[in-house]
Specification:
Elements: H1 8-13, H2 21-24, H3 29-35, E1 40-43, E2 64-71, E3 82-89, H4 97-103, H5 110-119, E4 123-130, H6 133-147
Antiparallel strand pairs: 1-4, 2-3, 2-4
Length: 169
Amino acid sequence: MTTVDMCRREKELTISFQLNIDKWNTMDQHIKDMVSRPWENIKFLDETGTKINDQINKVPNDKGGVYVFLLKPEIIPGMHRYIMYIGRARKKNGFSLRKRCKEYLKDERIQIMYMRETWGDKLYFYYLPLDNDDDIEKIERELIRVIIPPCNTEIPDQYISFAQPTAAF
C-alpha cells in the first residue's frame, strides 16, 4: 500500500513570515533616511527561469550596496509583494552589486535554492547603490532585524523565548 501526502505541494510552496511592529518602530532614523532614497530593480531571471535577466547590465558593476530579493506575484497588481531576502555587496571584499546578483543563480544555500527554484520567475532584484561599506553593513543588518525576511538565515537580535521560571517554595 502506498501512502500519498495530498498536501505535499501545499507544504512545499508555503513559507512563513514574521511580522513584528515593535521592531519596525525601533528602526534607526539614519537608516530610514538612507533606505528612503529611490531603489533600482530588475527582474532576476529571464522568462525561461534558467538564466539571469539581460537587464543585469543595468546593475552597477563598480558599486557596492544593499539589495533585496522581492517576490512580486502580481495577484493584486502593484500591491502584492514579499521581501524574501536582504543582502549586501561590500566593495572592500571585491564585490559589486552586479557580481553579487549573478552569484545567486548558482547559490547552493538551501533557502536561496528554495527561493530561486520555487519563485524564480516572480523574483525581482532591488538594489540601493552605496559607496560606504560601513553604511552598507549597518543598513543590511538593520533591515534584516526589522523585516525578518524568510530566506535569511541569520537574523540580528532575534527574540528568544524562554520558559517562565517556576517559583520555588
